[in-house]
Amino acid sequence: MSELIKELHGTKIAIFDLDGVIYRGKDLIPNVDKNIQRLKDQSIIIAYNSNNSTATRQMYADLLKKFNISSKPSEFYTSASITAEEITRIKPNSNIFVIGEIGLREELKAKGHQIISSESEYSKVDFVIVGLDREFNYHDLTMAQRCILEGKALFYATNDDATLPAKNRVLPGAGVMVKAVEVCTGIKPITIFGKPQPTGIELILRKYNISPKHALMFGDRLNTDIIAGNRAGVKTILILTGVTSTKMMEEVKKDPDIDRDLIPNMVIENLDAIFKKKN
Predict the structure, then answer these.
(1) CA 187, chain centre distance (Å)
(2) For the chain, is the Cβ count within 10 Å smaller at the N or the C terminus?
(3) pLDDT per residue as tens digits for the range 103-157
């Protein structure tokens, strides 16, 4: 059986970001499937924490199955599922206007919330919730504005990532939609539920009743994955298979004024590095 390096002894749960850590675009990062299984063979719990709100958790489980990684929808904590969980705590069975895609809409409906789309019902809307929407338009913006300024709606967001990784380029992220609503209303979202907030990681730890000291967070983005992990008090591991390069990491470390939550506990080239090398 593969053995973890000494620094990671005592690990009970490993939490992974998805894009840039498990896969890049439509391609599995080499050996990740085997390394996930090596962790499972040591009875380490696996969970996933993604800022992407566009897909359902079943869609993520189906995607990982194509990569030969077995998983259950309940193991995924997306910014959509986290938002639905937290909004339900605030007000169950509420009326919501959504700027977002199927992942966010389905998570909210599964929790018993009603999705409002007709502008004539703006006064009924309890919450405007904004996530990534690749069909975002002017009507969506005017409806959100009206619900907030003329109605009673409170403004929340799944995440505010400025960009979305794509093959050989970046695309506009959910933060663009969030900022549009903020600018036209003059109101900031009350809470942004995704990373860098530690909400998702804290939900995972509560579900499995595991102390932060026994948890690992693997991510490729300093300003989301690593900050969230550090804020949650877990051990953070930056993996250089995604957006952050060795050069970028070195520049961050040199900055005396940098937010210390941006600094991971460990930096690795790939997931192979967490296991002891066989002699």
Answers:
(1) 23
(2) C
(3) 999 999 999 999 999 999 999 999 999 999 999 999 999 999 999 999 999 999 9
The pair of three-digit structure tokens given for residue 175, joined into one six-digit string: 């933060």
Quickly tell me which residue has 């989301």 as its tokens: 224
Task: State the helix-helix crossing angle for 102-110 and 79-90, rounded to 10 degrees.
Answer: 40
Please compute, for residue 15, the number of CA atoms within 13 A of its CA located in the half-sphere on the CB side.
Answer: 31
Give SS3 for 14.
strand
Please give the torsion angle defined by the CA atoms of residues 168, 164, 201 and 225, in that order, rounded to the nearest 10 degrees: 50
What CA–CA distance (Å, rounded) separates 42 from 49?
A: 21
Residue 219: both structure tokens together: 């991510």
DSSP string for 142-178:
HHHHHHHHTS--EEEES---SEEEETTEEEE-HHHHH
Rounded distance between C-alpha atoms, residue 62 and residue 56, angstroms: 10
Length of the chain: 279
Helices marked H in the chain:
32-41, 57-66, 79-90, 102-110, 138-149, 174-185, 199-208, 227-232, 246-254
**Cα(270)–Cα(139) distance, integer angstroms:** 44
What separation, in Å, do the N-terminal and C-terminal C-alpha atoms of the chain show? 14
Please list the residue range(s) of the chain that carry CATH number 3.40.50.1000.
6-51+195-274, 89-185
Is there a contact between 113 and 95 (Cβ–Cβ < 8 Å)? Answer: yes
Number of C-beta neighbours around residue 247 at 10 A: 8
CATH number of the domain located at residue range(s) 6-51+195-274 in this protein:
3.40.50.1000
Q: Would you state the structure tokens that stand for residue 163, as one six-digit string?
A: 């960009």
Q: Any idea which architecture 89-185 has in CATH?
A: 3-Layer(aba) Sandwich (3.40)
Tell me if 265 sits within 8 A of 237, measured CB to CB: yes
